[in-house]
Amino acid sequence: MGVWAIHAYGTPILMNRATEDQFNELHGLVTTELISRIRSGEATTQDIKAACDWLSKNNVTGVPVSGSPLAELFASLPELDLEDVERVIR
């Protein structure tokens, strides 16, 4: 079964849907590429944002376990109280 799409020239075309194996391969390739960019130290801000979005869209969450990089990131965040937030909002 195919799906209809509009070609760049405005012509409707019938396209075949990707198979589950193709989606799985693409998922793996995107994940591997993001990991590679981050590990190399060459990741741009946009790459990091893409990785965060990729995790979010795939329902990946984290718990800051003691000694983990996420725990270190969490510990580096300043503590805010409601009064501080209200002062900035006003």
Terminal Cα span: 55 Å
Q: Which class best fits the helix and strand makeup? A: mainly alpha
The largest sheet has its strands arranged as: 1-2
Number of strands: 2
Taken together, the total number of domains comes to 1
What's the gyration radius in Å? Answer: 21 Å
**Average predicted local confidence, pLDDT:** 87
Unreliable residue runs: none
* Mass-distribution shape: elongated
Helix content: 55-70%
Biggest beta-sheet profile:
2 strands, antiparallel
Order of helices and strands: EEHHHH
Number of distinct helices: 4
Beta-strand portion reads 5-15%
Model description:
With 90 residues, the chain is mainly alpha-helical. The protein has one domain (19-89). The protein is 56% helix and 11% strand. It has helices at 20-40, 45-57, 69-76, 82-89; strands at 2-6, 12-16. Strands 1-2 form a two-stranded antiparallel sheet. β1 (2-6) and β2 form a beta hairpin. α1 runs antiparallel to α2. The N and C termini lie far apart (55 Å). The mean pLDDT is 87.
Topology:
Blueprint: E1 2-6, E2 12-16, H1 20-40, H2 45-57, H3 69-76, H4 82-89
Antiparallel strand pairs: 1-2
Q: What is the structure about, briefly put?
A:
The protein is mainly α.
Which key phrases capture this entry?
single chain, 90 residues, mainly alpha, two-stranded antiparallel ribbon, 2 strands, elongated
